[in-house]
Design a protein that fits this description.
Elements lengths: L11 H16 L1 H6 L1 E6 L6 H13 L5 E8 L2 H9 L1 E2 L9 H7 E3 L5 E3 L1 H4 L2 E5 L12 E5 L9 H14 E8 L14 E4 L2 E3 L1
Parallel strand pairs: 1-2, 1-7, 2-6, 7-8
Antiparallel strand pairs: 3-5, 4-5, 8-10, 9-10
Helix pairs in contact: 1-3
Length: about 200
């Protein structure tokens, strides 16, 4: 399966987070209590999605709250690339100029390197979503975009409910704009295209 990803892909999702961050924090008391918001990007591919999430949260989170982002993918190759945080100019085409200037450094070889303050928010791991989700803590936000469409109905059904179980009450679940879980059995509440709430 080809790894298709871009910075700020399906930007309405990131706009939703920016516009609703105060409400998200208010409805999930643990965020303020622990001073952190926990996000899972699965699959993370070559890192554009979790880096985008890190940038967005850097821009909109109030002081005293940090982002902790888990980025996982089944491919060790793409996880290794993602962890380096180095991208070509072509790979950066989706980035608004102000973000390129603020959060990336152009290297002598012409590549762009993600700044440490953005990169340090993300932890990369190789992980197969078919395995059990054995996390000690839940997540406030989970991204699983444009993956489930490649699986059959039964696997999609199982995945949706596995994600539900690891999301904190009032937490958010983002799927791709072309995906639909309304025909599956789950307890998520539909918010808008590709956005669901526990």
């Amino acid at each position: 399966m080809r790894n298709t990803t871009d910075f700020f892909r399906e930007p309405a999702h990131f706009d939703y987070i920016k516009k609703n961050i105060e409400s998200i924090i208010e409805k999930i008391p643990r965020i303020k209590q622990k001073g952190e918001i926990r996000v899972w990007s699965a699959p993370c591919s070559s890192g554009e999605e979790p880096i985008t999430v890190s940038v967005v949260l850097k821009e909109c989170l109030p002081g005293g709250i940090t982002a902790k982002i888990l980025a996982t993918d089944i491919s060790e190759k793409v996880v290794t690339k993602a962890a380096k945080g180095i991208y070509t100019e072509t790979e950066c085409r989706g980035l608004p100029k102000q973000y390129m200037t603020a959060y990336f450094q152009k290297q002598p070889d012409g590549f762009y390197r993600v700044n440490d303050d953005i990169k340090k928010c993300v932890t990369y791991r190789v992980f197969n979503l078919m395995e059990d989700f054995m996390f000690q803590k839940g997540f406030d936000i989970v991204f699983c975009r444009n993956l489930m469409m490649y699986f059959d109905f039964d696997i999609q059904q199982k995945l949706i409910n596995k994600f539900y179980d690891v999301i904190i009450p009032n937490g958010l679940f983002f799927i791709g704009h072309a995906e639909n879980i309304l025909d599956k059995k789950h307890k998520f509440k539909y918010i808008q295209t590709g956005v669901y709430k526990k």
